[in-house]
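Report of the visiting student (M.T.), summer placement. My assignment was to run the structure pipeline on a short list of targets and document each run. The first record concerns Solute-binding protein family 3/N-terminal domain-containing protein.
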Amino acid sequence: MLRALLYGAFVLLVSLGSAALQANSTAEDPVTFSLAAIEPWAERTPEGERRGLLVDLVEAIRGRTDIPIRYQIRPHSRAILEMEEGHADFVPTFVAPGINQ
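After the run finished, the structure tokens were exported:
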């Protein structure tokens, strides 16, 4: 089930990413993802390494397309704010217990 969910998310993000890239003024403008720092979806290790299912998904999109992508791992509320203020093109969201704590 998780594999099907991730595949569906991948297909959705690739198609949305293509649309966002076409809407950008130039091909050099990266599509920006702001990933909520919620384990196991996205986190930074004490060494600063990015890891998690959403990190893997964004890296897979980057590796399979010519879309320039930039992403950051942020606290959930900041990721949402970046989307609302237009600083992020995509903020994958989901329901998780305690997400706003």
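The radius of gyration is 13 Å. The mean pLDDT is 81. I thank the supervising group for their guidance throughout the placement.
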